[in-house]
Structure formats: C-alpha cells, structure tokens
Design brief:
single chain; about 230 residues; alpha/beta; Rossmann fold; Arc Repressor Mutant, subunit A; 5-stranded parallel β-sheet; 4-stranded antiparallel β-sheet; 8 helices; 11 strands
Length: about 230
C-alpha cells in the first residue's frame, strides 16, 4: 500500500514515515502544499496524510483541489487545532478523518488502515452509477444530486449523508452509524454535528420543494419518508 505524507515538520515527517515503513507501506513525502499537489496530480495513492498548516498552500486548499480530480482516495488531516469549526472545515474540504496533535502513532496507523479498508471494501450497491429515491437522483459517478430535474449543490458531507439515507430506502439510520460510516468514528457520538448537517440538507432538499422528506426519530436516528 502506498501513502502520501504531507507534513512540514521534518522530525514528525520522519517519525510518521518510519512508522509506516515498518508496517510495510510505501511512503512518498512532501513538505509544502505545492509539492503535495504535484504528487497528487501525477501519482496514485491508497491514502493521503495531510497536515493542515503547510507552507505555500494549506491542507484545506489541497484537499479541495484534490477532490475535484479524485473523490475516492481517503484523506486524513493532521492539525494542532481541536475546535469543532476546524474539523467541520476539514471535512467540508474533502477529508475523511481528522486527528489532532499530539497523537499516538498507533492510532494514526489504525485510522489509515481503517480508511483504506473502507475505501477498498465498498459494497456493490454503493458502486451503482445512480441511486433514485422518489424524485431525487444521486449520480455517484459525478457526485451530483437532482430533485425534480433541478441540480442541488451539496458539500461532500451533505452528499454522503444524503446518499447513506437514500441507500437505506426508508429504513432508519442511526446517528452512530452515520458518524462511523462518514466520519470514521473520529467524532464523539454526542456531538451535534450530525444535526447541523441534517438541517443544512433540509434547507436544500426539502424546503425549496415544500416537502418534509428527511425525518428524525428522536433517540433513534434519521430516515427518508418514502410514503
């Protein structure tokens, strides 16, 4: 397995590289945003470890530009900040997971392996080009969403939540399941982040169409009302 490590601190860069080499990974390293983008344009990786604070271009910018050309390779962000707003910005930029410094090397290894396993083990249903629920069409190839033939612009996290609910075909999806599948368990289950994103989705999916498709069952989770 091959990873790209983007970290400007030379000591930390070397320590992470050594840890992954010992686990049998192939590791390419970059110390600034421009070099990282060159690697991402010309090579393929199983996972990207991306520091937020980098010279020339920060991690948020790199993740956003990378997601325009690659939506499947997992990205885990490293940062010294532990504020919820920073995490949300990271996820909205396209990151799949988020680890706050200082961290245990074993935890980073565990999370990277988990991300790679999840990205390589997608079920066949989720690989279908499009998913249709009532008048909503989700195109998984182009990552676009339409309702009544009108395109709806969603952030990566909003898209992932809607897709998860759509694939459930009206069945209940718990808050913990959404966190585990979309955030990889890196958020506390007690956080209100899911509620925030559900509200964002309702403003885009329900409100303009005068419907109430996205439902909440307090204490259980969320589902799409298909009746």
């Amino acid at each position: 397995m091959k990873i790209l490590l983007v970290e400007d601190d030379a000591t930390m860069n070397q320590n992470i590289k050594d840890a992954f080499l010992m686990e049998g990974f192939t590791v390419e390293v970059a110390y600034d945003g421009n070099i990282a983008e060159k690697f991402l344009r010309k090579e393929s990786f199983d996972c990207v470890i991306l520091d937020v604070n980098l010279p020339l271009k920060n991690g948020y910018e790199i993740a956003k530009s990378f997601r325009q050309i690659n939506t499947s390779t997992p990205v885990i962000m490293l940062t010294a900040f532990d504020e919820l707003e920073d995490k949300v910005q990271g996820y909205d930029s396209g990151a799949d997971d988020y680890l706050t410094k200082p961290f245990y090397m074993k935890e980073l290894l565990m999370r990277v392996k988990s991300l790679i396993n999840r990205s390589q083990g997608a079920v066949s249903q989720e690989l279908k080009e499009s998913v249709e629920v009532l008048d909503i069409v989700i195109n998984q190839k182009s990552k676009t969403v339409k309702r009544s033939d009108l395109e709806i612009i969603l952030t990566p996290r909003e898209y992932q939540i809607l897709l998860k609910l759509a694939l459930a075909k009206g069945a209940m999806v718990s808050k913990k399941e959404l966190i585990r599948e979309i955030w990889g368990g890196s958020f506390d289950a007690n956080t209100n982040t899911i509620e925030v994103y559900i509200n964002f989705l309702r403003k885009k999916i329900d409100k303009p169409f005068g419907s109430n498709l996205i439902k909440t069952k307090i204490g259980y989770g969320y589902f799409l009302d298909l009746e």
